[in-house]
Amino acid sequence: MTETILYLISNAVHLYAVFMLFKAVLGESRLSPLTEKLTYVAYYAVNCSVYLFTDSSLLNLISNLVPMLIIMLQYRRPLRTMVFLTLALAAVGMMIDWIVSVIAGSSILATSNTLQSIAFLGLAFVFRALFVKDESGIGISTEAFLPILSIFTTIVIAVMIGPDIDIKGLFIAASLLIIDLLMIYTYDKLIDKMRLQITLKSIENANKTYRDQLEIMNISQSKLRFLRHDMKNHLAVLSHLIQSNEPSQALEYIGRMNESLSAGTSFISTGVPELDGLINYKIALANERGIAFRCELAFPEQTGIDVFDLTALLGNLLDNALDASKRAQSPQIELTAGVKRGYLSIIVSNRIDSSVLESNPKLMTTKGDKLSHGLGTRSVRQICEKYDGSLDHYERDGLFVADILLKIPNRN
């Protein structure tokens, strides 16, 4: 009876580890979330029934592998991937069984599959944390070691209980199993919440970009309306200057009209609305601060690089350039981008004050808030690493240059 109770609990732990691995490796199911979970419940029922009503090791192996392979059919992956994963899990399970038999022998915690399930759960968690790349950018953190430590502690306590187990030992073993399962489950929910927060943050940034773009367009339209309203007066002045045989003054007046017409109406169009909004907003800020801003952009229609990453990268680089330009004489910012040999090249340069170069030859941050500046640079570096690219900083002819390369993913 004791062995049966431990097996039922440990098998639930093992099932959750399988579910966790499948979601990480195979992706989203074609079934509804409820139906997907019911398939795992059916797998659990079949597996437990075979264990309870038969003593055949072969049937137990089949009841593990066949339902596992059938469950995989709900995911959008090639059949060869499913077969390989099934055989790989079977091999890992056999290896764990052998290790447990060496360590614990015929202990009830080994025969009830308790130690094997705990070890499998730990391996599944470590594999997912270390080897499965998370598109949201959430990597393994220090908090991830708490579930690993809990699992390791459970195994040590289970081995210390020894081959014989009483009611107290059964309670301890079952409680530790449940604690491990709940800890991993809670950690997964925490990660899901963090992913949701990142998604909401990206939506918020996109909305801000659209608002900024709309503000720029409204300002531009307002200036055009004023110019059209005053056009009759301007034309009258020009007519008078020409009739008075004063062509130089007429040309000067036309130049002033042209400046009024073009001020704030120069829009960048990359074909990516999010980037257009961001860059045009930064250009508007530069114009307000008297900073010359030059762009030379040649973005391909499809880079394969996440727009959220591009806006975060450009936003940080341009913010740094705008801030540094406050202290420069004849400030200017240049932004160039294009494709070079399979890489997206982005170069942002800004004129830097000579006193900064003399006092800070390594071009370290001169911001009062060094932490925020450091986080921005760190974000840029992480994006470069994500796309197997590079980030270089250097000084050239009185300009501070940030040179970025991002490898364009192979869409084939």
Q: Could you explain the architecture of this structure?
A:
Mean pLDDT is 75; it is low at 135-139 and 361-375. Helix 3 (57-72) runs antiparallel to helix 4 (79-104) and helix 8 (167-229) packs across helix 11 (273-288). This protein is of the alpha+beta class and 412 residues long. Strands 1-2-3-5-4 form a five-stranded mixed β-sheet, covered by helices on one side. The protein folds into two domains: 2-201, no CATH class; 267-412, Heat Shock Protein 90 (2-Layer Sandwich). It is built from 14 helices and five strands. Strand 1, helix 12 and strand 2 form a beta-alpha-beta unit. The longest helix is centred in the middle third of the chain and has 63 residues, at 167-229.
Topology:
Blueprint: H1 2-26, H2 33-53, H3 57-72, H4 79-104, H5 108-111, H6 114-131, H7 145-161, H8 167-229, H9 231-243, H10 247-262, H11 273-288, E1 292-297, H12 307-325, E2 332-340, E3 343-351, H13 354-359, H14 370-386, E4 390-396, E5 399-407
Helix pairs in contact: 1-2, 1-6, 1-8, 2-3, 3-4, 4-6, 6-7, 6-8, 7-8, 8-11, 9-10, 11-12, 12-14
Q: How many helices? A: 14
Q: Fraction of residues in helices?
A: 55-70%
**CA-CA gap between termini:** 56 Å
Tell me the radius of gyration.
32 Å
Taking the sheet with the most strands, its summary is: 5 strands, mixed
Shape: elongated
Feature tags:
elongated, 5-stranded mixed beta sheet, 412 residues, Heat Shock Protein 90, 2 domains, 67% helix, alpha+beta
